[in-house]
Design a protein that fits this description.
The structure is a homodimer.
Chain A lengths: L1 E6 L6 H12 L4 E8 L2 H9 L15 E7 L5 H13 L1 H12 L8 H7 L5 E4 L3 H13 L3 E4 L6 H14 L3 E2 L5 E4 L2 E4 L9 E5 L3 H12 L4 E6 L12 H12 L5 E6 L4 H18 L3 E5 L8 E2 L2 E3 L3 H12 L20 E6 L2 H15 L2 E3 L6 E3 L9 E5 L3 H4 L10 H11 L4 E9 L8 H15 L4 E7 L8 H11 L2 E3 L2 H12 L20 E5 L2 H9 L3 E5 L9 H17 L1
Parallel strand pairs in A: 4-5, 4-22, 5-6, 9-10, 9-11, 11-12, 12-14, 15-18, 15-19, 16-17, 16-18, 19-20, 20-21, 22-23
Antiparallel strand pairs in A: 1-3, 2-3, 7-8, 13-14
Chain lengths: ~575, ~575
């Protein structure tokens, strides 16, 4: 049997409601209990379940609805009594909680909270999603960084907020950012960890928590751990917060090792993210660890970047780089990505080597046109010349009709190399040279003149050859290498070495971050204004950070039209002040 | 100006044609040259290019067509003369080549070649694709293993050949298998490498060559390197050859370390492949290295398997495991995958941890139903109970409508755990328990009773909890761990440890390979019959292996109808003999 009670104009956050629910369900004779705000979506769920009495159809978002179910099989009169007894205690249970945590004056608006705590550099927002962007926007306009815990914020709002933040040198973590650590203080859900040299940037949530906890368990610590929200690394948002957070940690003196954790970013922005991370690492002399769960990268390191396959491995690599005593590591030997500008071209006679190279190129250099497939590759369009990066498997049947396979007779490679050299937009060509029985008896006889000719046509052209062979092969490995090198190719033994070489010469520049984040965002001790879930305020106080909690309610009692009028009035007042 | 000449009934393989083309193009006054067999596809290409004179429309597949182009701008009469002189030398150039390599008697059929070289355990087939399956089938029927270099073999033919091989305890490498090393002898394209303890199974081509060359360069060697063809690991073919090759190398006394190299197999068969590799490794006490280029696996090792991200890393791991002096490594501590039978269920409160677990499960255990996505995952169908593996992110907004997030209040996890325990088909449940500020003040108070109850319902149920927390967290990490363990959960610190634990208890059994391959396939010295590209025969001779080359021509001069009649006649004769 279900029993209802409403309390009009009594807004509570989801955690208070959860605690009320648990307390009610523990009372004698009560089988289960529910407590929700009268939002349209909650009403709809109740209506769909046939659980909404007709007289409650007019509930507003700041009306509280409490439901208790009395035990099955209990005598109906007894059940009614238990329900009434329980519902009569709702006010007391809510008041008890309020008395425990709320001795102080509660500001009713963000503006007054910031007057109470002007040193707050952060505003934590965890109000329901439909109101969250509004609160976050006000915080940015008042010059504060935002930790936006709320989910359900529309994509367009997220983009607009991040644009505003970028213009003002501020950071928006979220929406749907579950966790962060700023200057040793946890925001939202956060493990308590010692401070140390490892700086994290992560989408949000348990990935960041798992790495931070693991770094702590391994004896090191966290400088800051910044969340971006799960949608930040999508093509639409373009990693707006991640790029700025990485750059900020690069300048942060407490951070000695950079770590980026993410589910696979959109292929379009992986390269941009890695370039920013590498550029920041090089500029700052800080090594960087990357874990893109589910995106395979065919090397363990490139330039200053180390790649981890799991969250635990990311933590272990970071601690290893930081040194267990927390001292800063020596800067890496500094490569110079971006010293050659232009496109990369790959000419492969073997499909598997081509595939491995393609997996790396798309991640490091962005979109690559190819007759093979990888995340971020673009189908090869034979009908027009390439303008960007292109990598071809020349052993593909479609290319060898009526011609010998390029391993049998590398003239196809030589012809393509000549073609690439005539394109001044090409910075480097990577090719494979495969020796052994069955292969051409002397590939260098065909390829060395082609390399020499290509270099004559285009003296800046970098030509890297991966030479697959052994000292027992009939072609004479040493002589092949010597002749290719003499002609002007850089000859390497394996693909990771080739990738490193290309990266050092042709790695993408990072575009400079405009209006970088003001470092005050990371200053200790942390002070924040909390709008939304009250327990986040309590957690800040428990961590000896400063916090002011706003006694937030849905604007105009949830009346959207009135809220819109009030918003306009308040904007006018803000301009006037 | 183009000049043509035909030689009727004069079949030559593609490498001979390539050499003829190069020789003709080197003659005085000749700008370029072409030499093709009159196959329908070659004729079509010439016709499409407007290069096929009307009087050559009737060419048959064993008719040779030679074309030379005389130099632009040369006097026409001179050009005619040079062309005639060049075309007159075609016979001589072909004969010179024949005289160089062909002092001995050449059998005209596979049957007579096998009579000449009865000890041949292998038949190498590199005739054009449309004829290749026929030759391979005859080889299998005559009890020989097949190295099938030809491409263009239809999928149905590949499946049929591999079924025949399986029934007869034979191996088919290919179609489109470019390379292999058997007992120290290279087949097709192959680098010369010393023999040693590393046994490879690879799709084909340059992946295998790059790893073999690298193993040699690192001072170790190859026992055997078996190709499977690029389509073997597709869902259609199901890894038929790879599974059997792995099992064979497991029994091979010369192989101390197993290595599997592949572009990502179809998600459906990745788990089957890894299970076979792990079972073989455990049975034989041989460690195994896996490189699935482009398929991210969120651990570096699991049971006896080590995972490499690049071809070079696979080689380095294998050499490391083998020991640089080639001695066999000590067997791994033996886990017992498959000791628990049944489904796995994952209950996660965090999306990133859930994603990492899902990436591992789909690879190790096969299809997994989930509300997240990974290669090999299946969308969660809420409308019916799960029958196989299922992993849920319980923090998903769709599951928390009107309920607190499971990190705030783990009762949702507890309820699901009770549900899983009522399903006797479930072998193990993996859940995450996340501590820290913001999270539930005492998750063990909710979860430990749920674990105890679940174990009471289903005493065989393995419950693994990943506990994310630190010794500074407000919940008391040690006490949380203790209470969960006391209730019967296995508590681990990170996901790789959880995956290892699940794998040891619930790893999939490998299905026994029926009609395993006769070990004579790997016996030295190698003896083979070669049908197709003549230079493969020459390479065998150069490696001091035994080879008989069949003087193969398209059956019935390329007349398909006549060929079909002859085939039926020959089958009748074979049955009679």
């Amino acid at each position: 049997m279900l029993h209802y009670r409403t309390r009009r104009g009594s807004y509570h956050d989801s955690i208070v409601l959860m605690q009320l629910r648990v307390a009610l369900a523990d009372l004698p004779g009560i089988d289960d209990a529910g407590a929700v705000m009268g939002t349209p979506s909650n009403l709809e769920i109740l209506r769909d379940g046939g659980l909404l009495p007709a007289d409650l159809e007019d509930l507003a978002p700041d009306d509280l609805l409490v439901v208790v179910r009395t035990e099955n099989g209990a005598d109906e009169g007894q059940g009614d009594e238990a329900a009434t007894a329980a519902l009569d205690r709702v006010g007391e249970l809510l008041a008890r909680r309020r008395a425990e945590s709320d001795a102080d004056y509660r500001p009713k608006s963000l503006a007054s909270a910031l007057r109470m705590l002007p040193e707050a550099r952060w505003v934590m927002v965890s109000v329901p999603g439909r109101y969250a962007a509004e609160v976050a926007r006000e915080a940015l306009e008042r010059g504060r960084n935002v930790f936006l815990f709320s989910d359900g914020v529309p994509l367009e709002e997220e983009k607009a907020l991040k644009e505003t933040a970028a213009e003002r040198g501020l950071l928006v973590m979220g929406p749907d950012c579950g966790t962060a650590l700023v200057a040793g203080t946890g925001l939202g859900f956060a493990n308590r960890v010692r401070r140390g040299p490892v700086g994290l940037v992560a989408a949000s949530g348990t990935g960041l928590q798992a790495v931070a906890a693991r770094v702590h368990a391994l004896g090191s610590g966290i400088s800051h751990a910044l969340g971006t929200g799960g949608r930040d690394l999508s093509a639409e948002v373009g990693g707006a917060s991640a790029l700025r957070a990485i750059e900020l940690l690069g300048r942060d003196p407490a951070t000695g090792v950079l770590v980026l954790i993410s589910k696979p970013p959109s292929p379009e922005i992986t390269a941009r993210m890695l370039a920013e991370l590498a550029a920041t690492a090089q500029r700052a002399g800080k090594p960087a660890v990357v874990c893109l769960l589910g995106r395979e990268l065919p090397f363990r390191r490139i330039g200053p970047l180390r790649f981890a396959g799991s969250l635990s491995e990311a933590a272990a690599l970071a601690v290893d780089l930081a040194g267990t005593n927390g001292s800063l590591p020596a800067p890496e030997e500094s490569p110079h990505p971006g010293s050659l500008r232009g496109s990369l071209r790959g000419l492969f006679s073997g499909g598997t080597l081509a595939q491995e190279a393609l997996l790396g190129w798309t991640a490091l250099f962005g979109p690559v046109e190819s007759n093979l497939k990888a995340p971020g590759s673009v189908p090869w369009d034979r009908s027009r010349p390439a303008t960007g990066h292109r990598l071809l498997d020349l052993g593909d049947d479609a290319l060898t009709v009526g011609r010998p396979h390029p391993m049998l007779e590398p003239s196809l490679v030589a012809e393509r190399l000549a073609e690439e050299a005539r394109d001044p937009g090409v910075a480097a060509v990577l090719l494979d040279v495969v020796l052994g029985d069955g292969a051409h008896p002397d590939p260098a006889a065909v390829l060395a003149p082609a390399v020499r000719q290509a270099r004559a046509t285009h003296p800046e052209l970098e030509i890297v050859a991966v030479l697959i062979g052994t000292d027992l092969d009939p072609q004479d490995l040493g002589a092949q290498r010597h002749r290719l090198e003499e002609a002007g190719a850089r000859v390497v033994d394996d693909l990771p070495a080739a990738q490193e070489s290309l990266y050092r010469r042709c790695g993408p520049d990072s575009e400079p971050v405009s209006h970088p984040i003001d470092p005050s965002a990371l200053e200790a001790p942390l002070a924040a204004v909390n709008v939304g879930v009250e327990s986040f305020h309590e957690a800040l106080i428990a961590q000896e950070a400063e916090s002011a909690h706003v006694d937030w309610r849905p604007p105009a009692g949830g009346d959207e039209r009135l809220a819109s009028i009030l918003r306009r009035m308040s904007a006018t007042a803000a301009e006037a002040s």
